Amino acid sequence: MSCCLMQLMESISQNQKIERLVGLEKILVQGLTTNTGPSSYSIILQTLKDDLSKPEQQRQLKLMDYVILLVHIYSLAGNDVFYGKEEKDRTHKLIGKEILNESLFTNDLRQEMKTLGYSLEIEHALDVIYQQLDLLLSYKRRYKYLNSLIVDGHDEQPNYRQSLLKQILDLFKLYGNLGSSPSTVQQEQLMHDIEHVPFDGLTDFFRSAARGLFGDTKPNLISNDYSTIVIFIAGGITSHEIQLVQQYSQQIKKQIIIGSSGIMKAKDVLSVLLN
């Protein structure tokens, strides 16, 4: 009986943690789309300070949760998260200091980096994270259509986050219907973003020649003349993305083959950024 009660309490605690993370994530997304009020980065830090002032038993979120939130928000908006260089430098040092105060987090980071966990190594780890996210931001700027993970809302629906995979699947579903077709501008932007760019070689030469022979110079990714879609997600795929692809496959009644380098969990994000 006591074992069942303990499992129930752990389940309730986990649900409360998830609810708080989801609520906090929505607030942060709204903070990215307005210049009034505190920045999303400041919200994370203030919430972190409030949590650290409580006894450890009363904290719903761990420092690792906050760092993952930071990585998530930074990947959405890049330097737009910060109001200026001074705020970025100040919050950068504060996060590093708080990491050193968290023994469990510091030990995990030591194991990842195979270092002693001194403050300079922690600073270096944060620098590496920001460099990787800046690189991600530079790639996102190359997109013309799929260049934002935040969807503008309206009076009844606030702004919300939507993954790149979800956006692509929605476009396939929308423009794959007979009664719907993108405008010329949308078509050009869409093809610019998701057109396969071939590498040099005989295979690509014959592929391009075949397209030209049949009068199609570019692959039409939103036509209905395909029976199988192959999707490969580099770096790892989450269980939510797998479920999303399965649901989409049932909706369009086409086979979807999905591949990736592995199953990714939230805690794996830092490992990827530090490698």
Automatic annotation (TrEMBL):
InterPro entries: Sec1-like (IPR001619), Sec1-like_dom2 (IPR027482), Sec1-like_sf (IPR036045). Gene3D superfamilies: 3.40.50.1910. GO terms for biological process: vesicle-mediated transport. This is Sec1-like protein. It comes from Adineta steineri. Belongs to the STXBP/unc-18/SEC1 family. It comes from the Eukaryota.
